[in-house]
Design goal:
The complex is a heterodimer of chains A (about 800) and B (about 200).
Chain A: H1 2-27, H2 33-42, H3 46-70, H4 72-106, H5 108-152, H6 156-170, H7 178-231, H8 237-260, H9 263-267, H10 270-280, H11 286-289, H12 293-304, H13 308-326, H14 337-360, H15 367-389, H16 395-414, H17 420-451, E1 458-459, H18 462-471, H19 477-481, E2 486-487, H20 493-512, H21 519-546, H22 553-581, H23 595-622, H24 640-655, H25 661-684, H26 693-711, H27 728-738, H28 742-748, H29 761-777, H30 785-810
Antiparallel strand pairs in A: 1-2
Chain B: E1 8-16, H1 22-31, E2 44-53, E3 56-65, H2 72-76, E4 84-90, H3 94-98, H4 100-110, E5 116-122, H5 134-144, E6 147-150, H6 159-172
Parallel strand pairs in B: 1-3, 1-4, 4-5, 5-6
Antiparallel strand pairs in B: 2-3
């Protein structure tokens, strides 16, 4: 029973399935029927399905048949109706075809016109769209064109503003276009280009100020010079006023520059107005030589670009480099003043520019930076000046340099730079200046002394007399009364040296001007320098002349006279210094002049040289001595050489009557002493091993000639026998031997009033030995054998006694 | 015996107007020096220079005289002892040449008869300022039978030649000494042979 229910259930399911399949066959396309049919064949109900399918087919056939039967008559009527319509339709067709052919023929042009109208409408739409797009793009292009123009005309700041506008306002609206992309890509490049071009302008500017530093500095120095000249006439007020005016002008420029870069001004074409205004203005100093606008523009551009710090660093770095270049002195700067002037002009120009930048920009440079730069500059300048000024050998150049340094310092002081170190250095240069002056005057004195004729100055007229007296403070009533022609006692070098000393004092004074020294300091400095001139320079010059190899008595005598007069003139030099410094001699701590010492020393040296000179002449005569020490002949006159010698001395003292008395006396005494000493040496020298009484007698004649000279009073002022005392030693020695007065000598030796007080026993023995040798040699003469033997015994006896004296004297 | 450092002593004298260059001529010869500044000689001065001629050492004692008239008395006293005298004039100074005749008369009056003489025309380097032609100097020398040189102390022209020539002329008139004979001081004797050589 369960099996039957189950079969019935399956049959219902199958029936439902078959129904579904049949609906699918009826609704699905042929292409999809395959899977459906396969599902039928997969099952086991194929036969049943076929039955149902056949059933459904017969049903559908009956439905169709019924329908056809029902509508048969209507169908027939319709067919009849249709056949009628077909005829009518054919007529209509023919008519329409004909109409169409006519219409086609007639409306051909209209069709063409319609086509054209269609094209026009299309174009119009395109044009309208294009115009709409272009209206959006046009401002961009205009801005870009403007940008290009501004770049071309190098108005970079406006260009930068245009660029900003373009980038942030206009381009975003049309960013989808390709050319806009190109623009956007180019903007960074353009920005860089503006930076680069601005930097290039700055570099040109830096080059310009470097090139014009010299001119700028020169102008500033000249202005300072003019200001100083004015200060010497009017009050201090004009200086302050001038300075204010300068600052004011600077600020005016600054304001103008700011205005010229503002957007408002740009839009209103204000640049032209401003430029015209600039042209009309007269700007002093740096403004006339250098256009500062590039640095201002560049500063603004970099500020806008957010690179201000980069710009500041670059500017300061470059200026430091330029400072080092400016501070590098040319290697031959010391040769001319122009070398120094150019150097100073460059430095001043550099700092004038920096000062201007400081006051016309907002922080591009600051006081700390400039002060640091100035400190470096000052130390380098001072070092350079120390080095180069030490090469200067021309005092005029040193003096001009000092004036230039003062002007340099004053100029920079006006701009607020501290310059005390420069004035300190000027005091060092002053010492060097003094040294240079001393060298110069050494040359001057040498020339004066070398070119002097060492003769008294002759004057033939009152005019000439007054001229000499005007140059040198000499007063002599006796000389003044003498008739012309007459002579001053001194030679040309006296007034010349005196005047040159005064010139030296003037030169020292010149250097002290503008150094802010007190009168007492100046006076002290001048006296010290003058002392050096007198005690060192002039002294050396005089000594060099006096020690010259071929100096003659003429020159030496005149130098003695000249230095006497120069010594007396020292008090007038003191007065001269007092007059030009207005410092009284009584002032405490005033340095004194020591010139008198120089002239005394020179005079003493000249005197010594006279004595030496005379003695050398005497020596030359003595070298001509030609004694025959073995002669037996008795001469009757002095040796020829000695006669000449005495004649020379006599004529020398006769012609040098202008030699001061004491000097003449000393010279004469010195000559006589030298002559006596030399003759004694001649007699006693070892090379003379033997001599005869005859030789002694000839020698005695020569000594008598000398004594005659001494007695004759060759130089006034000697006491009766003072000069003769020079020969007393010789006289006593010769008397002793010629008179063979040994008994008296030996008996009286040691007595205070003995006749041969000045005969030294050693000397006597030496001479006696020479005579003994002579006697021995003559032993061979038979006829004198006895006498000679006796004499030899006597000589031996005396020699023995002399040795005894010598021995006892020693013990 | 003291040894002499020379064989013979010749005494020479320089005379002429002031400023012709006598002292400069002497300095050039004795010290080979020249001083551009003119310093007037006062009175008398001398230099000694040893030269060697014909194997003999000869000391030349050369006296330099002041040319100024005020020293005339002193300078003429030296004429007597001179063995050779140089008369100096300045070729740029006609007056100094004209005065040569005066100086020649002084020699005749004050010097030994047999003194050897020589004429010097100094400053011949200053030809652009010459006023005395060389021919004039030669002529007056020829007339007096004496040697003539144009010299320049500044440029050192003919200086040594002049002195050595004069010394040779004096030597030629000096008696030859016998070997080992006693040395005789020539100047102390008056026996020098008096023949005078002619120059042309």
């Amino acid at each position: 029973m369960e099996r039957g229910k189950m079969a019935e259930a399956e049959s219902l399911e199958t029936a439902a399935e078959h129904e579904r399949i049949l609906r699918e066959i009826e609704s699905t396309d042929t292409a999809c029927i395959g899977p459906t049919l396969r599902s039928v064949y997969d099952g086991e109900e194929h036969g049943r399905f076929m039955e149902k399918l056949e059933t459904r087919i017969r049903n559908h056939d009956r439905e169709i048949e019924k329908m056809c039967n029902f509508h048969y008559q209507g169908f027939v009527d319709s067919i009849t109706e249709l056949l009628k319509v077909r005829g009518e339709a054919q007529k209509l067709k023919n008519q329409v075809t004909d109409t169409n052919r006519k219409l086609q023929h007639e409306g051909k042009e209209l069709v063409i016109a319609m086509e054209e109208l269609k094209q026009c409408r299309l174009q119009q739409r395109n044009i309208s769209a294009t115009v709409d797009k272009l209206m959006l793009c046009l401002p961009v292009l205009e801005m870009y064109s403007k940008l290009r123009d501004q770049m071309k005309t190098k108005r970079h700041y406006p260009a930068l503003k245009t660029l900003e506008h373009l980038e942030h306002t206009y381009l975003p609206q049309v960013s989808h276009y390709r050319f806009c992309k190109v623009m956007v890509d180019n903007i960074p490049k353009l920005r860089e280009e503006i930076k680069d071009v601005s930097m290039s302008d700055l570099k040109d500017f830096l080059e310009s100020i470097r090139k014009h530093s010299d001119k700028i500095g020169e102008t500033a120095m000249k202005q300072a010079q003019q200001q100083r000249n004015l200060d010497n006439i009017v009050l201090q007020q004009p200086r302050i006023g001038s300075k204010r005016k300068s600052k004011k002008d600077a600020y005016i420029i600054f304001d103008t520059e700011i205005e010229s870069t503002s957007p408002k001004s740009e839009q209103d074409s204000g640049i032209l107005d401003v430029e015209d205004e600039e042209d009309d203005e007269e700007v002093p100093g740096a403004q006339d030589l250098v256009d500062f606008s590039p640095v201002y523009r560049c500063l603004h551009i970099y500020s806008v670009l957010g690179a201000r710090e980069t710009f500041e660093n670059y500017y300061r770095k470059q200026r430091r480099k330029q400072a080092r270049l400016v501070l590098q002195p040319p290697s031959n700067m010391h040769e001319t003043l122009d070398g120094y002037r150019k150097y100073f002009n460059q430095i001043v120009g550099f700092f004038v520019v920096e000062d201007h930048i400081l006051h016309t920009t907002q922080g591009l440079v600051n006081r700390a930076y400039i002060d640091e730069l100035w400190e470096m500059a000052l130390s380098k300048t001072i070092a350079a000046l120390r080095t180069h000024s030490s090469y200067c050998s021309d005092p005029n150049l040193v003096l001009d340099l000092k004036n230039l340094i003062v002007l340099f310092a004053d100029t920079l002081q006006v701009y607020g730079f501290p310059v005390n170190q420069l004035f300190d250095m000027l005091l060092e240069i002053r010492d060097q200046y003094s040294e240079t002056l001393l060298k110069k005057w050494a040359g001057i004195f040498r020339n004066i002394l070398d070119s002097d004729n060492y003769s008294p100055i002759p004057v033939t007229s009152e005019e000439m007399y007054k001229k000499v007296v005007g140059q040198f403070p000499f007063q002599d009533i006796e000389l003044e009364k003498q008739p012309f022609p007459k002579k001053f006692p001194f030679s040309e070098f006296v007034p010349k040296v005196y005047n040159q000393i005064k010139e030296f004092i003037y030169a020292c004074l010149k250097f002290s001007e503008d150094l802010h020294l007190s009168s007492t300091e100046v006076d002290d400095m001048i006296r010290k320098s003058t002392n050096l001139l007198l005690t060192r320079t002039l002294s050396n010059s005089l000594q060099n002349v006096i020690k010259r190899k071929n100096i003659g008595l003429t020159e030496l005598v005149q130098i003695i006279i000249n230095t006497t007069h120069l010594e007396k003139s020292c008090k007038y030099l003191e007065e001269f210094i007092t007059n030009i410094t207005n410092v009284l001699p009584e002032t405490v701590h005033t340095t004194k002049l020591y010139g008198t010492t120089t002239f005394k020393d020179a005079r003493h040296a000249a005197e010594e040289e006279i004595y030496t000179n005379l003695n050398q002449k005497i020596d030359q005569f003595l070298q001509l001595a030609d004694y025959d020490w073995m002669t037996g002949d008795l001469g009757n006159k002095a040796s020829d050489y000695l006669v000449d010698l005495i004649a020379f001395l006599r004529s020398t003292f006769a012609v040098f009557t202008h030699l001061p008395g004491k000097v003449a006396q000393t010279a004469c005494m010195s000559a006589c002493k030298h002559l006596a000493t030399s003759l004694m040496q001649l007699l006693l020298e070892a090379e003379v091993r033997q001599l005869t009484l005859g030789a002694l007698q000839q020698f005695n004649l020569d000594v008598r000639e000398c004594e005659q000279f001494a007695r004759s009073g060759p130089v006034p002022g000697f006491q009766e026998d003072t000069l003769q005392l020079a020969f007393i030693d010789l006289r006593q020695l010769l008397d002793l031997f010629i008179q063979w007065d040994w008994s008296t000598y030996l008996a009286d030796y040691g007595q205070p009033n003995c006749k041969y007080l000045r005969v030294n026993p050693v000397t006597a023995l030496t001479l006696l030995e020479k005579m003994k040798d002579t006697s021995r040699k003559n032993n061979m003469f038979a006829q004198f054998r006895k006498n000679e033997r006796d004499k030899q015994k006597l000589i031996d006896t005396v020699a023995k006694q002399l040795r005894g004296l010598i021995s006892s004297h020693h013990s | 015996m003291a040894k002499k450092t020379y064989d013979l002593l010749f005494k020479l004298l320089l005379i002429g107007d002031s400023g012709v260059g006598k002292t400069c001529v002497l300095f050039r010869f004795s010290d080979d020096a020249f001083n551009t500044t003119f310093i007037s000689t006062i009175g008398i001065d001398f230099k000694i220079k040893t030269v060697e001629l014909q194997g003999k050492k000869i000391k030349l004692q050369i006296w330099d005289t002041a040319g100024q008239e005020r020293f005339h008395t002193i300078t003429t006293s030296y004429y007597r002892g001179a063995m050779g005298i140089m008369l100096v004039y300045d070729i740029t100074n006609g007056k100094s040449f004209e005065n040569i005749s005066k100086w020649l008369r002084n020699i005749d009056e004050h010097a030994n008869e047999d003194v050897e003489r020589m004429l010097l025309g100094n400053k011949c380097d200053m030809d652009d300022k010459r006023v005395v032609p060389k021919g004039k100097g030669e002529q007056i020398a020829r007339e007096h039978g004496i040697r003539f040189f144009e010299t320049s102390a500044k440029a050192n022209i003919n200086i040594e030649k002049a002195f050595l020539t004069l010394a040779e002329d004096i030597l030629r008139k000096t008696p030859v000494k016998e070997p080992n004979s006693e040395n005789v001081d020539i100047s102390s004797g008056g026996g020098v042979t008096g023949w005078k050589s002619k120059c042309c």
